[in-house]
Amino acid sequence: MDEGLVGGEGFAIDASVVQADAAQASGIAGTAMDRQAYGPPRASRAVREYLEGLDGEGRPEKERKNISTTDPAAQWTCAPGGPAFFAYSTNYLVDVHAGVIIDVEATGAHRTEEVEATRTMINRVEDRFGIKPHHLIGDMAYGSAELLGWMVEEKDIQPHVPVWDKTARTDDTLSSSEFRWDARADEYLCPQGHVLKKQRRPFKNPRTFITKDNRIKYRASQFDCAKCPIKSRCCPNTPMRTITRSVHEYARDVARGLATTAAYRRSRRDRKKVEMLFAHLKRIMNLDRLRLRGSAGAHDEFLLAAIAQNLRRMARRLCPPTPAYHLLAR
User: Is the pLDDT of residue 58 over 60?
Assistant: First the structure.
């Protein structure tokens, strides 16, 4: 930061899977995990560390299909087209000004844990260094409504992230994007001009209409839909059309608007700096399999590797090779 290699304007986030030091043969079903058989005093440090955290975190152990008795914190995962293996994910938060790694977090090789690591690292960097990015760059995995809402509404960070959107229909019926949203009236208008509301009668006790998955349902009138000339293209299998709207839809709209800007297109190119760091980590530093076990061991290895990559980046940027060096290299 003192040398100007960290700009603090744009951060990029991504994760990469690294194989754990656990063989496939060490896996058992979650229902067979016995604390007495694998717990102290027979257990290794990685197993003891895992069992100690079970009660506090409330992990649904029996729902896991495959757990390694060697390193139970490792997640059973599979790359597209490749064999399955036990692994951890290293999550990088990178300042795109010079490609310096600002923070690193070790998680299980699971998409949900990787996405949640974003909040952890952003908050940690803000607490430690007093810097918060103007915009955050990521792929579609980081485009969930909850994370976009956190970035826009809580942290005031511009999300240069594709929106995770599954509302588009593929059966030639009308998608929700073809309905016009009226924020002032808190309602949707269908292409025929009919209204979709979340409430059509008064309630004695006020309701939020927010479901468990943080969405609000807007329904059309059954009378309007029954006589609508395009009902077969809108809701052919239901008596009325329903649209669910996320409580974080404003943040999703902000992300969609940013996707049309020149800054967003530049951010798409800057995201390659994270991918290059992961390629360097595995191909040059040969960290394609961990040596240490457990979450703490994975964190230590990922952290040391990130430090080595930052030192290399500093050496190349602050002490560039002289012309004589190039002549000797030849």
Answer: no
